[in-house]
Amino acid sequence: MGYSGMEEDMRLVQATPSKRQVAYQQMEFLCFVHFGMNTFSGNEWGTGKEEESLFHPAKLDARQWVAAVKDAGARGLLLTCKHHDGFCLWPSAYTEHSVKNSPYRDGKGDVVKEVADACREYGVKFGVYLSPWDRNSEYYGMGKAYDDYYVNQLTELLTGYGDVFSVWMDGACGEGANGKVQRYDWERYFEVIRRLQPDTVISICGPDVRWCGNEAGIVRPSEWSVVSADMKDAGLIAQLSQQEDTSEFRERPIDCTMQDIGSRQALRKEPRLIYYPAETDVSIRPGWFYHEEEDDKVRSVENLKELYLKAVGGNTSLLLNIPPDRNGLFHERDVESLKGLGEFIRGTFLKNLAQEAKVAATPVKGRDGNGPEALLTDSYESGFGNVDGERELTLEWIWDEEKELDYLILKEDIRFSQRVESFSVSYVPESGAETVCYDGTVIGYKKIVPLDGIKTRKLIVRITDARVAPILSYVGVYGK
Ligand code: FUL
Question: What is the model's pTM?
Answer without folding.
Answer: 0.96
